[in-house]
Amino acid sequence: MWAAEALSQAGDQLARVALAVLVYGNTNSAALAGLTYALTWAPSFLGGVFLAGLADRFSRRTVMVVADLVRAALIALVALPGLPFWVLCLLVALVSFAQAPFKAAQLALLPDVLEGDKYVVGMGIRTITMQTAQMLGFAGGGLLLTALSPSVALVLDAVTFVASGLFVWFGVRVRPVPPEDGAQSPGSFARSALAGARLIWRDPALRTLVVFSWLSALLILYEGLAAPYTAEFGGGSVSVGLILAADPLGSAIGAYVFTRFVPAARRAGLLGPLTVASCLPLLGCLARPGLIPSIVLFAVAGALGTAVMIQATASFSRGVPDRNRAQAIGLQQSGLATIQGLSPLLAGALADVVGTARVVGLVGVLGVLVAVPAAIAWKNATAARPDVWSSTSGEET
C-alpha cells in the first residue's frame, strides 16, 4: 500500500505538470490551464460523497485496484493527441472523481493492516513519503518535460496507476467486507452519504476531529498565494519555490518528530494544543516578514499542522464503526479537498484589497478563534469517553 501510493502520487504530480504544459501549449490560455489543474482536484469532492461508500460494500483491496485501473485507462485516453478541450476536461475530471474511492478504501483499510500504535507511526511514514513524492514529482516533472512530450509523460502516469494496482493486488491480503455489527447498512449511495454525515454530526468527538483536519487544510492556503506573497517583498520565481518547499519540509520534520518522540498515550490529548499552536506562526505574517522569516514560519506551521492531521485522521478512523468507516472518511476528505481548493481563491480575492501577507495573518487569527473552542470541545469529549479517545488501547477499541 505504501509503495502503491508513493508511485501514484509521484505520477499524479508529473501529470499535473504535463497537463499544464499540454493545455497551455494548445490554447495559449493561462485561464484554461488553471481550469484543467483545478479539475485534477475539485471533482474528488463528489467522488468522496457518493463513491466512498463503495469501500464499505466491497472488498477494500478490490476497490483500490479497480480505481487504479480506471484511472490508468482514463489518463491514457488524455494522452491521445488531438482531443477536443471539453473531452480532455471531462476525462481529467473523471480521473479526480475516481481518486476518492481509492483514498477512502486505503484509509479505511490502514487501521486493519497497522494495528495499535503502528497505525499512527505508519501515518507519519506515509506523510513523509507523500510530501517527498510530491516534491520529486513536481521537480522531476519539470525536468522530464524538457526531454519528453506531455503525452508521453501522461502515459507514464498511466503506467504508475497500473503498477499501483499490481502492488495492491499482489501485496495486500484479501479481507472480507466489514460486517454490519449493529452499524447502519450503507443502503443506496445517497443514503450511505447521509448515514456517514449523521454518524459524524451526532458524535461531538468526531465533529471536533473533522474541525481539526479541515482547519489544518485551511491554514496552508499560503501555498496557493505563494506568487503574490513573495511579490510583496520583491521576490522572484526562486522565492516562490522556496516558499512552496517550506510546508513539505516542515511536514516531513513534524511527522517524524511526532511519531518518533511523542509517547503514544499522549498524542490524542495533545490534539487541541497542537491545533492552536499551528495557527500562531501565521500571525507573524501580519508584520509582513521577508523571505527567510516566512520560510521559518511556514515550516513551523507545516510541522505542527501535520502532527494534527496525522493524529486527527488516526483518531477519526478508530472512532468510526468499521462498517461505515470508508464513507465517513470520504466525507471528511471531501470537505478537506474543498477547503484546499477554495480557500486560496477566496483569500486571493481579499488579498487584492488588503495585501497577501495580511490575509495570511488574518487566517491565522481566524484559526485561533476556531481552534480554541475546538480544543475545549475535544478535551471534554476525551474526558467523557477516555476508553475510546484518550489512550492507545482506546483507539484500538
Q: Could you give the topology of this structure?
A:
Blueprint: H1 2-27, H2 30-39, H3 44-50, H4 54-57, H5 60-78, H6 85-113, H7 117-144, H8 150-171, H9 189-202, H10 204-219, H11 226-231, H12 237-261, H13 264-267, H14 271-283, H15 291-319, H16 325-354, H17 356-384, H18 386-389, H19 392-396
What do these coordinates show?
With 397 residues, the chain is an all-alpha fold. The protein contains 19 helices and no strands. It has two domains: 168 residues, MFS general substrate transporter like domains (Growth Hormone, Chain: A), CATH 1.20.1250.20; 208 residues, MFS general substrate transporter like domains (Growth Hormone, Chain: A, Up-down Bundle). It is 81% helix and 0% strand. The longest helix has 30 residues. The radius of gyration is 21 Å and the shape is globular. It starts with a helix and ends with a helix.
Described by the principal axes of the CA atoms, the overall outline is globular
* Rg measurement, Å: 21 Å
Counted by DSSP, the helix tally is 19
The CATH topology of the largest domain is given as: Growth Hormone, Chain: A
Question: What's a quick, concise take on this entry?
Answer:
The protein is mostly helical and 397 residues long.
What are the salient characteristics of this protein?
mainly alpha, disordered C terminus, Growth Hormone, Chain: A, 397 residues, 2 domains, globular, 0% strand
